[in-house]
Amino acid sequence: MFRTAAALAFVLALGGLAPALAADVVPPIAYKERTLANGLKVYSSTDRTTPNVTVQVWYGVGSKDDPVGRSGFAHLFEHMMFKATRDMPSETIDRMTEDVGGFNNASTYDDFTNYYEVVPAEHLQRLLWVEAQRLGSLVVDEATFKSERDVVKEELRQSVLSQPYGRLFYLYLPQASYQAHPYKRPGIGSIEELDAATIDDVRAFHAAYYRPDNAALIVIGNFDQAQLDAWVDRYFAPLKTSATPIGRVTTVEPPRTTPGVFRGYGPNVPLPAVLMTWHAPAASSPDAPALTVLDAILSSGKSSRLYDSLVYEKQVAAEIFSDASLPQQPGMVMLGAILAGGKTLDEGEAALLAEVVRLREAPPSEAELAEAKNELIAHKLRERETIDGRAFALGYALRTAGDAALANTELAQLQAVTAADVQRVARTYLTDAGRMTILYQADSARPAGETDAAPKPPVVASARYAGPVVTLAPEGRRQAPPAAGTPVKPVLPQPVERTLANGLKVIVARSSDLPLVSASLTVRAGAWADPQGLAGAMGMTAGMLTEGTRTRGAQAIAREAEALGATLTSGGGQESAAVTLNVMPGKLEAAMAIMADVARNPAFASEELERQRSQALDGLSVAYQSPGQLASLAAAPVVFGGTPFGQVASGTPASLAKIATADLARLHGRYFRPDNAILVLTGDIAPEAGFALAEKAFGDWAAPAGPPPARAEVSPKAAPRAVAIDLPGTGQAAVSVAKAAIARGDPDYYAGAVANSVLGGGYSARLNQEIRIKRGLSYGASSRLAGMRTTGLFRAVAQTKNESAPQVLDLILAELQRMASAPAGPDELKARKSVLIGGFGRELATTDGLAGILGGLALYDLPLTEVADYTGKVEGVTAAQVQAFSAKELAPDRVSVIVAGDAKAFEAGLKQRRSDLEVIPAKDLDLDAASLRK
After folding, report:
1. How many whole angstroms separate alpha carbon 546 and alpha carbon 676?
2. Does the pLDDT value for residue 692 go beyond 70?
3. Mean residue pLDDT across the chain
4. Which residues contact 818 (CB under 8 A, 6 or more apart)?
5. What backbone phi and psi angles, to 5 degrees, belong to 602?
6. What letter does residue 85 receive in the DSSP assignment?
C-alpha cells in the first residue's frame, strides 16, 4: 500500500534576531512509499521541473557488519557492485550512466551502503533494470575481486597513509572511541585484512546482506508515477528473499566510566592535533536534535564557540571541528582541533575542555540558539536543491533513524530545541568520566620504545560458501536492457544583464522556486596582480574582506551573516577575487548589505592580518606534507615561471611573512572598483528585484577617476621540466604532467574540452581506464583543461604507491600520444560529449553553480548566450578536431613532469625516463625561486 508523506510545508520564521524579515518556507520532500512482497521498500517523489532522475538503492549493511578479521569488507563490496552481472559485462553501468550524460557513485557508512545515479529522465527504465540486475544477479569472480582489492588499497594509501591526518581520522578516532562495538574498526579496512580475504568470503557476504528485504529503492525526478510503479513491479518484484534471517550487530558498547587517553603518531604531521570523544545515543534518540544543535553551536561557522575561542581569540588552533552525526546504534560526539604552529597538546586540550565546561555550566544564549538553528535549517534547504540531495535525505533518515519521514520532521524537531535542552545533553553526555582524549603527533615526537597502539588484525578462517555462483551469460543469451524513452527537453535559465551607472555589471537569472539565492561579486584581478616577491598578496586581500570593515569587526560580520542562515565567504584565485553569498530570499536584502560592506570598506587591521597570516602559514605546513597538494602547488612556477602566473596564488611561507596591511590596502584601492567588477544573482529572484537590490547595495559605490587597470596578458614560455619532490615516509606518490594550454575564448576551446573529456574527464575516460580499471594502480586518474583569459593550464594527475610512479607516468604519456595518433571512435566521442553536456546541465541546476558559470563568462568577456549555445558547440566537435587539438596542445614531449612522494622508491625509475630529473627534498623546496630550491 502507498503512504503519502507530503503534509503541510514548514513555515519557519528563522531567527529571533531579525523579526522584521519575512519568513521563508522550507518545503518538505513529498514522497510516496510502498513495500513489495519480497520486502523491498520503494520511495518515490516526482519533480517535473528537472530533465533528470536519480535512482538510488540503500542497503542495510555497512562497515559495522564487516566479518571479524575482514574489516573494510562492506567498502570492498561497494566496489564489486560496479562490475558484471549475469546480463551486463563489466563497466556496463558506466556506459548506461556516464556515457549518456549522467553519473554514478556509491558510499559506505558504518550502517549502510548506498548506490546512486543521476541520468536524463528518459533512461529511468534502463537504470531500474540495472539496479535489479546487480541486486539479483551480480557476478562475483576472482579476477574482479583481486582487481578491486588493489584499487581499495590505493584508496587507503591516498586517503589515509599519504595524508598528514589520515591515520588520525580513519584509524585512531574509531579505535580509541570504542572498546567492543564494531564501530571501532576502520571502514576502509587494513591492507592485512584485505589481503586475507578470499572469494568465498566475498560471496558469503553478498548472499548475507544483498537481498530485497535489506534494500530500499529511492527514485526522485521527472517521471510518471504509474509507469514507475509498473517498472518496479516488472524488475524488482520477481527477486527472491532468502529465508535466512539477516545477521544484525547486537554488541553493546560498555559505558566509559573513567577518562582515557590515546596517543597516536604519523609520518609528515606538521601540527599536533587533539580530539575528544564521548559515547552518545543513536540517531533515533529524542536527544538527537539537541545534540545536533549543540554541534552547530560548537563549530558551525566563524561565530561558533570553538572557532571564536580557539582560532580567533586564543589562536591555539589552526582548525577546529565537532561532529554529532549519530549513527543507527549508540555512537559518539566528537570535537577537536589541529593546533596552531608553536602550540602544545596541553594548550589545545585545556582550550577544548574549557568550552565543554562552558556548555555544561550554562545554557547558550537565545542569539546563539537562533543562529545555530538558522544555519542548520539553511543547510537542509541547500541539501534539497538537487534531486539526489533530496533522495540522500530520505535514505539517510531511513538507514540511521529507521524512518524516512524524519527527513521532514527533523526540521520541526530542530526548531523545538531549547537552550535548556542543549545544556541538558551537554551535562548528560559530555561528562569528565566519559571522555576519551586522542593526542596525535609526528613520529619524531614518539618516545623511545613506544609502539603503535593499533591491535594486530585477528587471524580468522575464511568463510565456506556453497551457494549459487552467477557468471556472465554468453553474449547471445544475455537479456538486453530496455530502450531509452523520449528525451525531456531542459528549460534553461534566461540571464538578464544590466550595467549600473557606476560601471558595475549586474547579471540576474531566476533559476529556481526553492527559497535560495546566490550572490557573487567578482573582481577582475587575481594572483597575477601580486607584486613581485609577494605571492599570495591578492589572495590575502580577498580573504581579509570578511575579517573586518570600518564599522564591523570580524566577529560581528560572522555573527550577523550566520544569524541570517547565510554563508558569506571571500577569496582569490589566479584571475579574480570574489565575495560570495548564499541565503534565503527573505534575508537577502540584509545579507547583501553585509556583503557590500565587506567588499567596499575593508579595514585590513594589523591584528587581523596577523591572525590570517598565521592560519595561512599553518595551512601551508599541512599542504607541504601532502603529495597531491605539493605537486599542485609546484605547477604554477614550473609551467608559468617568468610570467604573472608564475607565483603561487596562495603564497609561500617566505612571501606571506612579508605582506603588510599597506600592501593589501593598495591592491584593494587599485582593483576593487565597480567598473572592474561583476555581480551575479541567481535562484529564487526575479531580474527586476535583483537589479533593485544591486542598486541599493552597490549603486553609490563610486568608481575612481580613469579607466580600470589593464589585466595581465600572459604568454608562457618556460621549457618543460621534470621535478621530483622528495617527501620521505609518505604513503603515496602524486604523479602529474602539466603544460600551458589555450585560453577560454580560443576558437579551439570546445575541441579541447572534448579532448580532455576523452582523455581524463571522468571515470570511464582513458586515463582512469588504463590506470585504475585495468591495472588497479590508483584510486583515480584524471585530467583537467582550465581555459583562462589569455592562456590556460592542462594537468593530468594520479596518485599511486611510491614504487609505481614511473609506470603510472608511462601510462599517462602513452595516452597523450594515443590522443594525437588516432581519432576517437564515434561511440567514445558521443559518450564523452554526453559527459560534458550532462555535467554542465547539473551545474546549471544549482544556484551556486549557475552563478559560477555566468560569472566566469563575464570574467572572460564571453556572451551570456554561451549558456544556451554550450550543448550545440560541444556536439559540433569532430573526431578530427579532437585529434588535431591533441597533436598541437597535448604532445607528451612538451609537458612538464611533477612527482611528489617518497623519492627513494621511484627516483631511479624516473631518471631512466627523464635524464633531466631534478630531485628536491621537500625541506629544501622554495616555490618562490626559479630553481625551486632554497
Report:
1. 20
2. yes
3. 94
4. 766
5. -65, 145
6. B
pLDDT at position 497 is 98
Provide mean pLDDT across the span 231-251.
Answer: 96
Q: What cell does 384 get? A: 534539497
- What is the C-alpha separation between 44 and 474, in angstroms, rounded? 35
Closest C-alpha among 564, 513, 537, 528 to residue 27: 513
Distance separating alpha carbons of residues 474 and 477, to the nearest angstrom: 5
Alpha-carbon distance 112 to 77, whole Å?
A: 12
Q: Is there a contact between 9 and 555 (Cβ–Cβ < 8 Å)? A: no
Instruction: Find cell 596542445 and name the residue.
Output: 889
Residues found in the chain:
934
Q: Which residue has the cell 555497512?
A: 62
| 308, amino acid identity | D
Rounded CA gap, 568 and 591, in Å? Answer: 8
> How many CB atoms are closer than 10 A to CB 151?
19
Alpha helices in 683-729 (DSSP H): 687-698
- For 864, list phi and psi in degrees, rounded to 5: -70, -15
Q: Decide if 581 contacts 518 (C-beta within 8 A).
A: yes
Q: In terms of Cα–Cα distance, which of 537, 749, 723 is closest to 641?
A: 723
Q: Nearest to residue 492, comparing CAs of 168, 230, 840?
A: 840
Predicted confidence (pLDDT) per residue in 144-183, tens digit: 999 999 999 999 999 999 999 999 999 999 999 999 999 9
> Nine-digit cell at 721?
621540466
The pLDDT of residue 24:
63
Query: Is beta strand 436-442 parallel, antiparallel or unpaired with respect to 273-279?
Result: antiparallel
Long-range contacts of residues 918-925, Cβ cutoff 8 Å, at least 24 apart: 918/721, 918/722, 918/723, 918/724, 919/724, 919/726, 920/723, 920/724, 920/725, 920/726, 921/725, 921/726, 922/624, 922/625, 922/630, 922/725, 922/726, 922/727, 925/624, 925/630, 925/634, 925/725
Question: Which residues share a beta bridge with 277?
Answer: 334, 436
Cell matching residue 634: 609546484
Bridge partners of residue 142, in order along the sequence? none
Cell numbers representing residue 448 in the block: 623511545
Closest residue by Cα to residue 907 from 778, 801, 781, 802? 802
Q: How far apart are CA 814 and CA 892, in angstroms?
A: 8
- The sign of the torsion formed by the CA atoms of 263, 269, 272, 275 equals negative
Phi and psi torsions of 167, nearest 5°: -65, -35
Residue 420 has φ and ψ, to the nearest 5°, of: -65, -35
602 contacts 592 by C-beta, under 8 angstroms: no
Whose cell is 552467477? That residue is: 470
Residue 16 pLDDT more than 70? Answer: no
Beta-carbon count within 10 A of 23 CB? 12
Whether 513 and 585 have beta carbons less than 8 Å apart is answered as no
> Each residue of 69-92: pLDDT tens digit?
999 989 999 999 999 999 999 999
Q: How many C-beta neighbours within 10 Å does residue 425 have? A: 26
Q: Which three cell numbers stand for residue 345?
A: 597538546
Q: How many CB atoms lie within 10 A of CB 840?
A: 18
Q: CB neighbours (10 Å) of residue 18?
A: 17
Cell 547486537, located at residue: 250
pLDDT-derived band of residue 855, with 50, 70 and 90 as boundaries?
very high
> Measured between alpha carbons, how far is 652 from 578 in angstroms, rounded to an integer?
21
